[in-house]
Amino acid sequence: MGAQAAWISGGRLHLHHGPIDMIVGVEGPGAAAGFARAIRRFDTLLEELAAELPRLRSANGALPRGDVARDMVHTAGRFPEFSTPMAAVAGAGADAVLAALMDGPGVCKAYVNNGGDIAFHLRESAVFRAAMAGTGGQIELPSTCPARGIATSGWRGRSQSLGISDSVTVLAEKAALADVAATLIANAVDLPGAAEITRTPARDLYPDSDLGARLVTTHVAPLTAVQISTALTAGMIRAESYRAAGLIHSAALTLGPQTRIAGLLPLTQPEAIHA
Amino acid sequence: MSGEKIRCDACPVMCFIAPGNVGACDRYGNEGGQIVRSDPLTILDRRLEGGGAVRPFLTHDWDGTFSDEDIFISGVGAGTTYPDYKPAPFIVSREVAGADTVTVVTEAIFSYCGVKVKIDTDRHLGTEGAVVRAGSEAVGHVTTSEYGSQMLSLGGVDHLTGGSKAEGRVTCDALLRLCNREAVDLSIEGGATVTVQAGMAPIVDGAREARMRVGCGSATIGMFASQWLGLVDEVVVVDDHITGVVSEHQAGKVLDWPETGIRIKGRRSTPGRYFQVAGPGQGWGGTDIEDPLSILNPWLEKKGARPGLTLLMVSTTGEHAAYYVLDDALEPQPAPMSAALQPSVDLIAENCEPALCTVMFQAGAGGSLRSGVTQNPVLLTRSVQSGETQVTCGGVEAYIWPGGGITLMVDVLHMPEGSFGYVPTPALVAPLEFTLPRAAFSALGGHDAAVRSIADIVEKGGEYGADMRLSPPKGRG
Questions:
Q1: Does B376 contact A156 at a Cβ distance shorter than 8 Å?
Q2: Nearest residue on chain A to B444, alpha-carbon basis
Q3: Beta strands in B70-206 (DSSP E)
Q4: Chain B CB within 8 Å of residue A270 CB
Q5: How far is CA B427 from the centre of its chain?
Q6: Chain A within 8 Å of B15 (Cβ-Cβ)?
Q7: Closest in A6, A18, A205 to B11, CB measured
Q8: Interchain CB contact of B456 with A (< 8 Å)
Q9: Fewer CB in a 10 Å sphere around the end CB: N or C, chain A?
């Protein structure tokens, strides 16, 4: 079954192939041509990645041939902690489709949302808004903010995590960078040895997992406020180190009721919802 | 069963999937050594509103012209993932009114469930608390009398699992048929037998009920007193609950209605309003009387009774009406109703609504099925309670009880036909959909990787031979 493109309401484009679902939005006089370029780029994306999957699932090896695969390898390699290029897969895919989309005139604002990892483009005075997982808040990015990628990671949902954070959202220059950083910061939000945390070898859950025998979180029993704070602090140390190294712009780390912010995250809180 | 891991060939990722697991997409899994995906499901299409029939759905019918707001993938036929912690069968991405939303679609197995039945009738069906039986098994009880209706509570976990095996089986069967809008015969201990079918008139002891009362006797007086003034000297609206007398009633007083010397049996509540004028039954106004004069005591001359005084007695539905004139001995004698008065009786009947049976499915969705949505179930509960997550059954918005848990109530008449099924545990199976903003779905730990577009579901479902049908959404918007 090949890649599919479908129009959904709001004039948006839904791209789907295998495990990939992307939502693409474009504003500007060049929107139609931009969408066409995005579809063309998406068409072969999964096949390119699948062809080099064994390499992308291992931490070392020869440089792959595909552009997106190379970007994944390079991006993962910028971080000192263990990861495989697969940590960048969603973000790098979004970056690649956005880059194709932008390769022409008349696009004022565009985004490619690849399952929550988002690459976006903003021209002067445009603002990008994204709802923020875990906090109920909204991120509001003016075009003056240098970040053009957002990614979120956590142990819930399908992504495997070595940590226990509910969500780590990262703003970075590219979605691929944000993707890897979110994964690695989420891994650091942890309480090593705590009895409240249940872990399982990654490959027992998914035989193909790039994490192999590493223990991934499968359950977190209720934690005390002190435990939550301790785990978040561990994550903050890693987040701040990435900020200092210029890898990320900012990050928000959420575990249970607590959220910590590294850097300046333009977060607005909506009014509380009343039943 | 095969214990082998198998290669999924649905997409180029070619996941190696262990038995009971799913691939990277969450769309395909290894079930007993086979790569499987969705079950048949029902798609609600707003474009079919206004008479479109439910029809089988084939992928080649799909013209691709729809907006997300036209289409709602319902839980009907969606199947169930088991064990519960697996993502629900369909997690659908839609844009509604400009916002990204996710709808989690499943068929839920409800061990805690039942129906509340509202039967529009004045007739006495049974005393509050009386046991309701289907065949010889107890399946519920009579609960409160409401305004013009009698409520039954049927099913619930105690009947499904707390009694004998036969009781559970019969209860499950009665609930299933009621929810799928079939007629079910029920007998009430010490009371009537009644045939209940959602959306149809109740049949009480073999007689089909036609009209629902316009109001209680007192309310009827309040509504029509001014129309009787000058046409008749006295009006009694006979009602098992509150019988009204116009000359004594406040509605008559403000019209300077003259006293008539009438005396009503029963317990006077407030002026012109009487309780317990007779026993409950199948007769006038839900009483056990066939002759309305039996609720009257001798008339008092000193209070205004006189030969020639005219009296209208009428029931709360206008179904029964009689006209009398007092003779020289101050005894009411039947007489033909005047042509001027008949329209007021007709007006009572005209103001009555058709008597119907309403079947509300009530169930607890706060259990393990929540983990088909999120790995942290209580977050879903809180999201539902805060109003952020909308709960529907077959596309029909469910009422969620305040307080703890997710206790829902929904009118089965609005749901697609054949929405309900059962499992022999016994429990009912009903479609259930949770709809929430995409961001909120992620925030509560939703199975993000399982989110799919409508187009994807339509196409892939067809490819795997899964039956689909299109159905107009009923009773919505």
A1: yes
A2: A134
A3: 71-73, 90-96, 99-110, 113-120, 131-134, 137-146, 149-155, 184-188, 193-196, 203-204
A4: no
A5: 19
A6: yes
A7: A18
A8: yes
A9: C
Q: Computed over its alpha carbons, how large is the radius of gyration of chain A?
A: 18
Tell me the per-residue pLDDT of B55-73, one tens digit each, with 9 for 90 and over: 344 343 444 444 555 666 6
Non-local CB neighbours of A81 within 8 Å, separated by 6+ positions: A184, A187, A188, A238
**Which residues of chain A are within 8 Å of residue B451 when distances are taken between CB atoms?**
21, 115
Please report the pLDDT score of residue B214 as a whole number: 77
Is the ipTM here above 0.90? no
Residue type, B243: T
Interface touch A131/B439, C-beta < 8 Å: yes
Number of Cβ pairs < 8 A linking chain A and chain B: 131
Residue A183 C-alpha, separation from nearest chain B C-alpha, in angstroms: 15
- CATH, domain range A4-268: 3.10.520.10
Q: If we measure between CA atoms, which residue out of B435, B408, B432 comes closest to residue B419? A: B432
Residue of B nearest to A132 (CA): B439
Across the interface, of B98, B446, B452, the residue whose CB is closest to A21 is B452
Please state the domain extents for chain A: 4-268
Nearest to B448 among A4, A47, A157 (CB): A157
Q: Is the bond into B307 cis (omega within 30 degrees of 0)?
A: no
Task: State yes or no: pLDDT of B208 exceeds 50.
Answer: yes
SS3 A104: coil
Could A158 and B10 be called an inter-chain contact, meaning their C-beta atoms sit closer than 8 Å?
Answer: no
Question: Token digits for A48?
Answer: 């390119």
CA distance B1 to B18: 12
Model confidence pLDDT, tens digit, residues A13-71: 888 888 888 889 999 899 999 999 999 999 999 999 999 999 999 988 899 999 999 99
Query: What pTM value is reported for the model?
Result: 0.52
Cβ distance of B376 and A136 shorter than 8 Å: no
How many angstroms separate the CA of residue A198 from the nearest CA in chain B? Answer: 13
Buried b (16+ CB within 10 A) or exposed e, B164-188: eeebbebbbbbbbbbbbbeebebeb
The angle that helices A67-77 and A175-188 make with each other, rounded to 10 degrees, is 40
Q: Is B379 left (phi over 0), alpha (psi -120 to 50) or beta?
A: alpha
